[in-house]
Design a protein that fits this description.
single chain; 135 residues; 3 helices
Amino acid sequence: MVKTTSVYHGDKHCDITHEPSSARIGTDAPKDNHGKGELFSPTDLLGAAMGSCMLTTMAINCEKDNVSLKGSWASVEKEMAANPRRIAKLHVVLHLPQQVPHDYRKKLEAFALGCPVKESLRSDLDVPVIIHYDV
């Protein structure tokens, strides 16, 4: 189990500390929800976690098969919905090395779609994923 601590400092700003590493992240409410948008919003972090989790999950599995994903990157666009306010869609685009063998790509794509962040979210959250082998 991993523990994080969030401290509210006012003005819709929080500091989050990852206790095992002492790493810190600040958050702010987004401009469209009474914030200044000065930092990641909590829902921005969820979107970022999706991209990072997909890359990390693929990398863990690729290492076992000696396939390198170095230089790969993800972009995630978040769409919000109202009533209740929530994330409606996360558009994920993964950019992976062209050198990934064609016969390995389906396996790699399954690793991405099975990442723990995606598996932990509501089943009605739309998460279209586009994968480009262009790095």
